[in-house]
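FW: tagging you since you asked about this chain on Friday. Here's the raw sequence from the shared folder, copied in full. Didn't touch anything.
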Amino acid sequence: MPDKTINSQLNQKSKAKSETRQFEIFNDKHIQVTTSNLIEEKSFNINLGLLEPWPVRHRKISIAWLAAVLYFFVSTVIYIFYLTANINSGLLGKLMPLIVLFILATIASLIMFYYRSPNVTEFRSRYAGCVLLTFLYNKPTPEIFDKFIDEMRARILAASQNIKIDKRRMLVIELKELDRLKKEGILDEQHIKQAHQRVQSLNFSP
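HL: got it, structure written out here
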C-alpha cells in the first residue's frame, strides 16, 4: 500500500458499550475503522467506491431491553392492581417492597433500553445492501458529525465515478470484499447470506 495520507478523521464514543470508534478517510478513496472496548480492538478498511453514497438514519432497537421494560412494567401494574383489590396491612407489608423493586427495575431497564438503542447513521454496500459503516448520530457534536458525513458522501461519489469497470465486475469485487470482512469478523454469516441473495436477484448478477 502506498504512503497513508489521512484526509479527515472522526472519533466517537459509546457510553452504553464502553466503546470508542475512530474513522479515518485516507488516500482520498479509503476509510479505516478502528473500534475498541474493554475486551478487544478491531480495525478494517473499505474502498469508498463500494459504498452507496446516501446514508440511512434510524434508531436500532434493543429487543432484549425492550422486553425487560415491558416485563417489569406489566408485573408492577399487576401487583399494584392486586394490592388495591385485596388491600390489608399484612399484604401491604409483603407486596410494597416487591412493587418498589419492580418499579426500580422498570426504570433501570428503560435507561438501558435508551442506551442500547442508539440513534445511528449507516452506509451500506452499493449492490448487496450490507451495512458496512455505522456512525452514532450527531456525535461528538452535530457540526463535526455533519461535516464528516458530507465529506464521506462527496468522496464516495468521486470514488465511484472513477471506477471504469462494468457492474458485473463490480458485483464480483463487492462480494469478495464482503467475504473478506466476514473472515475478519466484521460481518456475520447471516449478513453475507442475505447479500448473496440480493445480488442473485439483480438482472446483471454474475
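FW: The mean pLDDT is 87.
HL: agreed, and The CA atoms of residues 15 and 77 lie 31 Å apart.
FW: great, closing this out.
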